[in-house]
Design brief:
Structural class of chain B: alpha/beta
Largest sheet of chain B: 8 strands, mixed
Number of helices of chain B: 25
Largest interface: A-B, 19 and 19 residues
Largest sheet of chain A: none
Radius of gyration of chain A: 11 Å
Order of helices and strands of chain A: HHHH
CATH topology of chain A: Non-ribosomal Peptide Synthetase Peptidyl Carrier Protein, Chain A
Mean pLDDT of chain A: 92
Strand order of the largest sheet of chain B: 16-17-15-14-13-12-11-18
Strand content of chain B: 15-25%
Helix content of chain A: 55-70%
Shape of chain B: elongated
Oligomer: heterodimer
CATH superfamily of the largest domain in chain B: SGNH hydrolase
Helix content of chain B: 40-55%
Number of strands of chain A: 0
Mean pLDDT of chain B: 87
Strand content of chain A: under 5%
CATH class of the largest domain in chain B: Alpha Beta
Chain lengths: 80, 597
């Protein structure tokens, strides 16, 4: 089971947001500082925090919070 | 108030290399300390180095500083170095990976052969030489040595990859030796410390050209801070050592000189004997050793003079504080005595209580607790030399260190210190008093047999004698349990009362384990015991002090509790009395006393 609170916390700290600001609208279009370095660190942090491997085809597509949530949930389900 | 910043730092230390947690804490703490001294870093290399920036910022915060990190252009060390020099960056880190010298370099080494590898190493060397020429004006330059990314071959001691790596490292060391400002960092040692799999991330290497894990970057940043002594944030000169369970196993006051665990053979004495060798080696290198222990001076002197297995002797200690005062007070005294700042001290003790007392009251002292798992102690002791050894610091930067220190003292002395009362309140002390607790009679008997120092009458009782006291109508045996936020010290105190002539309660025995002393436990536990005596109809309290060779520290205990001295015999026997109707024990608001009978 995905803890959404934990997911929001990880995304928030890696994108320098407040956890309360992270939601359906959080995306590369709405978060100015979501650059390639932060994206890289976000992927590394997500993999570390949830002990998952984000599939290669998804790495570049993780451009919004809803997509991140779906991919992390999928990986947790296939691991569990 | 325990300093909020100090507790956030503890969080940061605990976060280890967990990337999102470290990132969150780093951002929060940087916002909270806008005025801290900022060290500027420039990162360059033939791989993606951004992750190192997060961990340099972490280390800076742990040292009361901030780090401002600029990442140079990818695989453009010379251009990056020029930029850093013109920006006036203080520290440049060159983090190169051998495998990235050429795409899939390690896989291609056997195919290239010597004839192919040597010119490649030559051009890497030229690039490094040019880079280092550009960083000449920069104060500190850290250049990574090369190590192999593919795990070393187990069956073949040195294969072609190892040979190529050796060639590269020879070139790096040779170029670095031309510059006074260049420190080398062994990435191989970091990988070895973590283990290959924890140090490297192939996924992230292939995706982002970022081969090193957060754990690797964490250790790398720590090494950078160690080898510069935190960029002047510390300058340790003296190592202050506790004695019991730090220099030897066991408690001298209870186990006596021939009972302490120390010796070249046989665990656990061998661990303490080994760490004493480390401490002696530090002393030979110029570190001032001090002894700071709650013990009787004569007992400790005897061990230093004549314990056959002691490695450290009296002559190795620059100063000693062997008494029953609290450790922060003793550290202050040692600093005065040696005429050095408290921030020059590294303090080692096995007790979490003492470590927290020093940590909160004297935050400038580097406090290290002996690991609770004794097997971790030798590695800890061996690592201490990093705190003291000069790397290649020039006299000028040493003078600068002293300036930082003066500035730091001025700021630290104000506002950062919790008072002792606040510290005690933060411990969550709980004292539980039980009466005639039969199942614990063996432990109570054992304490009467073993306790020497905090023991007012030193009456030794067998289990049978304790049980008959418990069953008697004219006596009570109270046992005391002490717990705090660090855990439960267990049954650590005994008080036995006899009721002769009905209206008189006489304290037959009172003893406490030294582990729980110094926090007001010894006075607070009397509340419920004396209430019970009153309920019984007693109007007078009588107590004795019977001197022994060991119990000098409690000579005036009954005075401190507030009893009146009624006789003082030539043999040292003192008798005290109090009127129970008016007597009350000194208040200790930081202790919760639980009456469990």
């Amino acid at each position: 089971m995905l803890s959404e609170e934990k997911l929001r916390a990880v995304v928030a700290s890696m994108l320098e947001l407040d956890p309360s600001e992270v939601g359906p609208d959080t995306s590369t279009d709405t978060v100015d500082q979501w650059d390639s370095v932060r994206h890289m660190n976000l992927i590394i942090a997500l993999e570390g925090a949830f002990d998952i491997t984000i599939p290669d085809e998804d790495v570049a597509n993780l451009t919004s919070y809803p997509i991140i949530k779906a991919v992390v949930e999928e990986q947790l389900a296939s691991a569990g | 108030m325990i300093d909020a910043e100090a507790s956030s730092r503890a969080d940061l230390e605990r976060a280890g290399s967990e990337l999102s947690e470290v990132t969150r804490l780093v951002s929060a703490l940087e916002g909270a300390s806008p005025d801290a001294r900022t060290v500027t870093f420039g990162l360059a290399g033939n791989i993606t180095t951004d992750l190192l920036g997060t961990f340099l910022r972490k280390q800076a915060l742990l040292h009361g500083q901030r780090a401002a990190v600029t990442v140079g252009g990818f695989d453009d060390p010379i251009g990056s170095a020029k930029q850093f020099a013109s920006d006036g960056v203080e520290v440049v880190i060159l983090l190169n990976l051998a495998d990235a010298i050429l795409p899939a370099f390690e896989a291609r080494i056997p195919l290239l052969g010597n004839a192919g590898v040597e010119p490649l190493v030559g051009s890497f060397r030229s690039q490094l030489a040019l880079t280092l020429a550009e960083t000449r004006p920069i104060k500190h330059v850290f250049a990574s040595l090369a190590h192999r990314l593919t795990p070393p071959s187990v069956g073949q001691a040195e294969d072609e990859i190892d040979q190529a790596i050796a060639l590269i490292n020879e070139a790096i060391a040779d170029e670095a030796s031309r510059f006074d400002n260049v420190h080398l960092v062994s990435t191989e040692a970091i990988a070895a410390r973590l283990g290959w799999d924890r140090a490297h991330d192939w996924r992230s290497y292939e995706r982002f050209r970022a081969p090193f894990t957060p754990a690797f970057m964490d250790l790398f940043a720590e090494q950078v801070y160690r080898s510069t002594r935190g960029f002047g944030s510390y300058f340790y000169k003296a190592l202050v050592l506790d004695a019991d369970n730090t220099l030897w196993g066991g408690i001298l006051g209870e186990d006596l000189a021939d009972g302490i665990k120390l010796g070249s053979h046989g665990y656990p004495g061998s661990v303490f004997w080994r760490v004493q060798q480390e401490y002696l080696a530090l002393q030979q290198r110029g570190v001032l050793l001090c002894l700071c222990t709650k013990n009787n001076p004569a007992d400790v002197d005897a061990v230093l003079a004549s314990h056959p297995e002691m490695v450290l002797r009296d002559e190795h200690f620059a100063a000693k504080a062997v008494n029953w005062d609290d450790k922060p007070a003793n550290l202050r005294r040692l600093a005065e005595q040696l005429n050095i700042g408290l921030d020059s001290f590294v303090f080692i003790d096995d007790s979490p209580f003492e470590c927290e007392a020093v940590g909160t009251q004297l935050p400038m002292v580097r406090t290290i607790q002996v690991p609770s798992s004794l097997f971790d102690y030798p590695a800890l002791a061996a690592g201490l030399k990093d705190l003291f050894l000069t790397s290649d610091t020039s006299a000028e930067s040493a003078a600068k260190t002293a300036q930082y220190r003066l500035a730091a003292e001025a700021t630290n002395e104000r506002g950062r210190h919790a008072t002792e009362e606040e510290f005690l309140a933060s411990l969550g002390l709980e004292v539980t008093v039980r009466r005639n607790d039969r199942p614990n009679a063996p432990r109570i008997s054992e304490l009467t047999q073993k306790s020497n120092q905090f023991n007012l009458t030193t009456r030794r009782y067998t289990v049978g004698e304790i049980v008959s006291l418990m069953e008697s109508d004219n006596a009570d045996v109270y046992s005391v349990h002490v717990a705090d936020k660090f855990g439960d010290s267990g049954l650590t105190g005994v008080a036995a009362l006899r009721y002769d002539g009905h209206a008189e309660a006489a304290i037959d025995t009172f003893l406490l384990s030294c582990r729980v002393l110094g926090r007001g436990v010894e006075t607070s536990l009397w509340g419920p015991i004396l209430d019970a005596a009153r309920v019984r109809g007693c109007t007078t309290l009588v107590a004795d002090y019977l001197p022994t060779a060991k119990n000098g520290q409690v000579l005036d205990f009954w005075d401190r509790l507030g009893l009146d001295l009624v006789s003082d015999e030539p043999d040292g026997h003192r008798r005290y009395r109090a009127d129970l109707a008016t007597f009350s024990v000194p208040p200790a608001s930081h202790i919760e006393v639980v009456n469990a009978f």
